Amino acid sequence: MNIQIHSIRFDADKKLLDFVTQKVNKLSNLSDGIVNAEVFLKIDHDEERENKVTEIKVEYPGGPLFARKQSKTFEEA
Description:
77 residues; alpha+beta; four-stranded mixed sheet; 4 strands
């Protein structure tokens, strides 16, 4: 599986990138058909406490899958 991680409006450190890679690799346990995963890590400019946004797009033979979550931390999202 090919994994691409994009950090938008900030530079992600190695610890966060490793964490995301580890979690996305677990998806291959659910299905062998996953070809590509693209993760977007964004910081929303709102002054809210929950300003971390994580989005993932998974290329799957049945069609692309997409999920988005906004939380206090990227790890939680």
